[in-house]
């Protein structure tokens, strides 16, 4: 199995980090930011995780991304496989996805680290 680094981020804060796989969650998955009761919470809060993980397609994307990581890890070159996943602000969808992917990859036997680049930044008012 491989060493995997997952970096969640917000496109509104800075450019995506360098990665083997970059997953853009902005346009296809429910944004908790639009719900006033979730806007100032983060992926560290259960209601945010529940809202994101109940979005149709998100669990299938976690599985597909895990399969892609395994494919990268099966290649002839050794090294860390880096996955970057981003949403608008980096506080809701991206870190929730990162945590779900990390759990899935850990169960599969990968050694996983997760970094939330923008989780602690202020809410982007839109």
Automatic annotation (TrEMBL):
Pfam family, one: PapZ_C
Stretches assigned to the RapZ C-terminal domain: 3-119
Top-level division of the source organism's lineage: Bacteria
Entry-linked InterPro entries: RapZ-like (IPR005337), RapZ_C (IPR053931)
Protein name: ATPase
Species for this entry: Streptomyces camelliae
């Amino acid at each position: 199995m491989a060493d995997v680094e997952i970096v969640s981020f917000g496109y509104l804060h800075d450019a995506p980090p360098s990665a083997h796989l970059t997953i853009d969650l902005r346009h296809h998955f429910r944004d908790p930011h639009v719900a006033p009761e979730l806007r100032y919470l983060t992926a560290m809060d259960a209601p945010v995780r529940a809202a994101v993980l109940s979005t149709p397609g998100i669990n299938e994307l976690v599985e597909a991304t895990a399969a892609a990581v395994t494919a990268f890890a099966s290649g002839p070159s050794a090294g860390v496989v880096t996955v970057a996943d981003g949403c608008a602000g980096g506080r809701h969808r991206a870190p929730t996805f990162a945590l779900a992917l990390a759990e899935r990859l850990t169960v599969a036997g990968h050694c996983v680290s997760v970094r939330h680049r923008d989780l602690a930044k202020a809410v982007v008012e839109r």
